Amino acid sequence: MVYAQETVMRLKDSVSIVIYGAGRIAQTVYYCMIQKPYDLKIDCFLVSDLNGNPDEIDGIPVVAAGKWMKRDAVVLIAVMDGFLQEIQKVLDSYGYTNVLSVTFESDLWGQLRGNYFYYLYKDMGMDFLRLEDETDQGSGTFSRSEQANIYVVTSGMDRKTRMEYGARPWETIICAGAALSESVGGSYDVRDDTGDNISVKNHVYCELTALYWIWKHDLSEYQGISHYRRRFELDAARSAGLCRSDIDVVLTIPVLNYPCVYDMYVLNHCVQDWHIMMEAIRRLYPQYYKMAQMLQNGNFYYGFNMLIAKRKVLSSYCEWLFSILEYCEQRCEKKPRYIGYLAERLMGIYFLKNWDLYKIVHGRRHFMSKELP
Question: Which DSSP helix (H) or strand (E) runs through 256?
Fold first, then answer.
C-alpha cells in the first residue's frame, strides 16, 4: 500500500465491514472499497432512520443502526463532515466501538483514495507519483529563499477552526476578496486587491481571486495556493526539497466521484454552467475538448483549486484557466461560488491533457475542522 497501511490491514483483517450512510458519499466509499487494492466485502449500509433511504444499494442491504447485530464490525462513516459528531453519538449509543471516519474532507479518506488511484493510474499506463517519494527530505535548517512560496487563502468570512498551526515559514497569508470590505479583519501578509487584480469578483471566483493575484504579482520559482482550512502536508525540509527537484506541479489526491464527475456536478450545481464550460473549451481550446469529455464521463477530478507549481507552469495554466472562466462568467447566470466550482473540474482537464509535458506529483492535503460550538 502507498498510504495508511495500518488502517488497510485493519480493514483486510476485519470479520465484518459496514458503511454508515446511504447517500452519494457512502456509495463512493463503497465503490472504492470493492476495487483494487482493497477488494473488500461490505456487509451492509447503516442509517439512523430507514425513512427516505433505499432498501438496498448494489444488492447490499440498508439497515437501521440499532438492528445490525455485529456490533464489532468496522464501521466506515461516509457522510459530509458536518454530520460526523451526531453519527458518532448514535453509534456510541448502540455499542459500536470499531469506527473509522471517511467523511468527505477526512485525511483518511484522502489516503484511501490515494491507494485506489495509485492502481487506477497504473492500469491507465500513468505513474501516480507521490511528493514524499520524489523529493529529498534533507536535514538541517532552510532559509525562506530555499523554499516554495505557498499562499494560504483567507478572508473575513472564514469559519473558525481548531488552531492546529498558523502560517508556517514557507506560507504567505493572502486576504481574498479584500476589495469587497472596507475593513478587512484578521492577520494576513498581502491583499488580493492591489495592482492587477479581480478581488471584487471573489463572491463567484472564491480563492481564484487570490490565484489571479499570485499569477500577476509573485516572482517565486515555486508558487502555490492552499486554504485556511486545507493545507498541503509539508515541512520546511520537504518544501526546500521540492525547490531542488525536477517536479513541475504538485496536485492533491484526486476526488473520487460515483457514478461519474458529470452526474455529481449536476446533482449539486447548475447543469447549464457545465455545458457553457464545455462550450468554452470547444471554442477556445478545441485540443482540450476530448480530455474534457473524458473527465466528464470519468470518476475523478482534482479538487479544491490547490496546487504548487513552477512559475512558468502556473502562468501557462492561469492564462488557459482564466480565459475559459471569463467566457463562462459572461454567459452563466450569476450565483455564489459557481466559477470556483467550475475551476476545480478545469484543473483536471488541463493537467491530465498535459500529463506527458509536466512532471506531476501528488501531495497529501490536511483539513482543519471547524471549531466546536
Answer: strand 255-256
Residue 105 contacts residue 113 (beta carbons within 8 Å): no
Express each pLDDT in 85-120 by its tens digit.
Answer: 999 999 999 999 999 999 999 999 999 999 999 999
Q: Which DSSP string do the residues of 223-253 spell out, in sequence order?
A: EEEEESSEEE---HHHHHHHHTS---EEEEP
Distances in Å between the alpha carbon of 1 and those of 6, 116, 133, 294? 9, 9, 14, 27
pLDDT, tens only, 290-299: 999 999 999 9
Q: What is the pTM of this model?
A: 0.95
Q: Which amino acid is at 64?
A: A
Q: How far apart are CA 70 and CA 185, in angstroms?
A: 51
With 0-12 CB in 10 A as exposed, 13-18 as middle and 19+ as buried, what is 286?
Answer: exposed
Contact 215, 147 (CB under 8 A): no
Render the burial of 244-258: b for 16+ CB within 10 Å, e for the rest: ebebbbbbbbbbbbb
Buried b (16+ CB within 10 A) or exposed e, 187-219: ebebbbbeeebbbebbbbbbbbbbbbbbbeebe
For 243, the grid coordinates are: 525547490
The angle subtended at Cα 128 by Cα 122 and Cα 131, nearest 5°, is 160
